[in-house]
Amino acid sequence: MSIVLGATLQPGNIIAWVIIGLVAGWLAGVVMPGKGYGIIGDLILGLVGALIGGFVVGLISPDATFGFWGSLVVAFIASCALVAILHAVMGRRTV
């Protein structure tokens, strides 16, 4: 299965990005320091991170095609960056 990053969204790609985003959000919640945002919050951050990461990589290299693992890496890095930005803007959670 190949996932295409970029502006063209097809139904199969959307489903794959949702799954990848959920996995990336969970991984970011485990890896990033702090209490996290709960399971639902981490999963939502993963989805948003996957979308942002896919959009940015699509802008940088519009003809690039990544497989499952490459897409997971992009989504994970973007999710971690999003969590770091939220920690910087909102402060770390103490509870």
UniProtKB/TrEMBL annotation:
It is found in: Cell membrane. It is a multi-pass membrane protein. This is Transglycosylase. Belongs to the UPF0410 family. Coiled coil: none annotated. The chain crosses the membrane at residues 14-32, 39-60, 66-89. The keyword Endoplasmic reticulum does not apply. Pfam families: Transgly_assoc (PF04226). Its main location: membrane. It comes from the Bacteria. The lineage of its organism: Bacteria, Bacillati, Chloroflexota, Ktedonobacteria, Ktedonobacterales.
